[in-house]
Amino acid sequence: AQKVTQAQTEISVVEKEDVTLDCVYETRDTTYYLFWYKQPPSGELVFLIRRNSFDEQNEISGRYSWNFQKSTSSFNFTITASQVVDSAVYFCALKTNAGKSTFGDGTTLTVKP
Amino acid sequence: GAGVSQSPSNKVTEKGKDVELRCDPISGHTALYWYRQSLGQGLEFLIYFQGNSAPDKSGLPSDRFSAERTGGSVSTLTIQRTQQEDSAVYLCASSLEGQGWATQYFGPGTRLLVL
Q1: Do B115 and B11 contact (CB within 8 A), yes or no?
Q2: How far away is chain B from the Cα of A17, in angstroms, using its nearest Cα?
């Protein structure tokens, strides 16, 4: 069975603070894929990043960075210098070759001005 | 290019009525997925199509739920004899293929309210 845990239900920060969203996953598959999605108040899920299980290289995209560690089964997401527009629900997801994705329950991030 | 589209955007129905939700995937995407998101919750997988066939229907919560896909494109999710607990946002996603590496792109969802 697969499982994705996002232990932080809600996070509130002040603009310009850095914030890290945690994601821990469980799977018996040796090949798998991890994703992060953003769901702003408008409701539509926006794809942010995909990471393969055999590639532990961290990635940075502008103010966003992702830290993938197989040893701890974690795929954490950091927003540097947060902005009000970053306020959203963020979902971590796990996908193997079976087709469907398993999603975490999401972390609601509120960035206050 | 066009993304995934869903219709209707909102649907209010009375308990016991049947509803049909429609999903138009991104052109060329062979895989299509339905998920359900209840208020403040994560995404619950319902069904996955590869082409017109559904290799994984494991998430359908009861036999009141069914889905079909025709022509390898449009999909319809049907809920018969709706119940209040069916109220949720129904999300459709598509991906180039069904394999794990293929990113799923989501539509805006259909908000269903059963009175």
Answers
A1: no
A2: 25
